[in-house]
Please model this.
Amino acid sequence: MNKHSRASLVALIFSEEKNLLKIQYSDNGVGLSKESLKSGNGIRNMENRIFSIKGKLKFETEQEKGLKILIQIPI
Model:
């Protein structure tokens, strides 16, 4: 996160809800462009790992407004 987003604050929240492990990530970094979300190898690898365990992944980002990621994994 420090290398890519240049964030000074990061929050990770873990919770359990309706047979799901929810992991919420947010930072105050530079954010990502929509093109970066579609073309980045790191993003694609993360998606493949989450999907392989029947999880869901959602990104919210705007350039210069940070990044938010929601991961939901069935338990």
